[in-house]
Every structure is written in C-alpha cells, then in structure tokens.
Amino acid sequence: MKNVIIRNMERLIACSSDSERERIEPMTAWKWRKLYQIANHYGILPWIAAGVHAYEGDFFMQIPDDVLNPLMSEYGDKSEENLQKFQLQVERSKGLLHHLTTRSLRAYAKDFIQTVKNVQE
Looking at residue 58, what DSSP letter applies? Predict the structure, then answer.
C-alpha cells in the first residue's frame, strides 16, 4: 500500500501526461513539504510542477506558499530517466511493506531445503 504522499505524486505526474485526472487527496502542510523534498531528491520537480499547474483551483491543492513558490518556478526539462528512477523506487518499496514474520521465514527455509534435497536426489 502506498502512502498519501506517493499517491498524490503519482496523480500529479500522471496529470501532466494528459491522462484522466484522479482527485488529489487532502494533505497537511508537512506532507506537501515532504512531497517537495522527495520530488527534489529524485529530480522530478518539473513533472510535479506541471501537475500542480493542471490541478490549479482544486480544493485539496492547499500547498503552503513556502512550497508552492519554488515549485512553480520549476519549469526545467522533464527527465524521463529521473521519472523512471522514481517509479522504480516506488515499485521496489511496495515489497518492503509486506514484512515477513519469523514463522513465514522458517516455512520458506524448510520448503527451500526440501526442494534442494529433491533436486539432489
């Protein structure tokens, strides 16, 4: 399961690629700042800025001015490579959300050992 920040980031990115718009989920000022930090880290601010512009006037786009002002000045080139890196990281993090228990690890190890024994025979 993705958190609201990532879901809204994906909506903003998708909106800038002329697809049908999904509604933005409400976020606190802290979450908008975090969204900005993540987008800056991955170099996808131009993608996010285009999405924010497309959602202009949406009720839930209550972005604090200290985030909105620098974000709206980001009209650089949209790097497909940076976008792909971000999307890959999101896909990888999905697997981290499903924590393995000790019991499931033991069961996996037991099945793995049995499989190896069967192959050796």
Answer: -
The answer to whether residues 47 and 13 touch, using CB atoms and an 8 Å cutoff, is yes
CB atoms within 10 A of CB 44: 24
Higher-pLDDT residue of 97 and 19 is 19
The residues near 17 (Cβ < 8 Å, ≥ 6 apart) are none
What predicted TM-score, i.e. pTM, was given to this entire model? 0.71
The per-residue pLDDT for range 65-87, each reduced to its tens digit, is 999 999 888 777 888 898 999 98
Two structure tokens written together for 82? 């940076």
Residue 78 contacts residue 46 (beta carbons within 8 Å) = yes
Consecutive H or E run containing 8: helix 4-15
Three-class DSSP labels, 20-43? CCCCCCCCCHHHHHHHHHHHHHHC
SS3 7: helix
